[in-house]
């Protein structure tokens, strides 16, 4: 068991009782290690097991089998020790309180929290700090959850669809804020449907499908593979190859024109491994 990693899971399995007492497996023997300081994206279609994995890391549910350690201890120890912060999709906010009052209230429950004004600024909430939570947009409420996650100055940030409800401009601001945390050495593990977010921000991508890990690597590694070569030679042709340089040289020697080489995208990898398109497509 790796007690030095930010997250270490071995043989992690989670089953639920479905309709008619049918057992539904949400995770199947997942092994995963996230080293401290890493920025890791969890990708996968709906039902892939992303949220279940996050719930297990946060101690919100217990595994049917296997183990998970978080910053060297149990998930509960990580949460109570303020070593982990989380931005979830829904819940946890009181609509009649102001943004600033919400952050101040949660700060009062923590030991040595970061200054309220500082986390409001990091989450781009200073301008609406006196606004009632119930009047905030979905994106603003997500930024408020981010501010609450920062209060305990955590070593690990867990984000479950953190930009849900945000427009493109707010998404851009959110990830700028997250880069500040990453530059401070905070480990970031986030689940998203948006492949562009994973490609732009993550240094490593873990792709889940059917409760298992089907790919794990850097964005460049996951995109490395076949390329499509299109060309004209007595008609228009398209060929898929793993050696575009050799093919292109041969085609040009034979007089081919209008040569076009297209690399595999992250979206192509996602579709090939899961048979699904991303939410963003």
TrEMBL record:
Source species, domain of life: Bacteria
Keyword line: Antibiotic resistance, ATP-binding, Nucleotide-binding, Transport
GO biological process: response to antibiotic
Cellular component, GO annotation: plasma membrane
Pfam families: ABC_tran
Keyword Cell membrane among record annotations: no
Protein name: ABC transporter ATP-binding protein
UniProt organism field: Corynebacterium kalidii
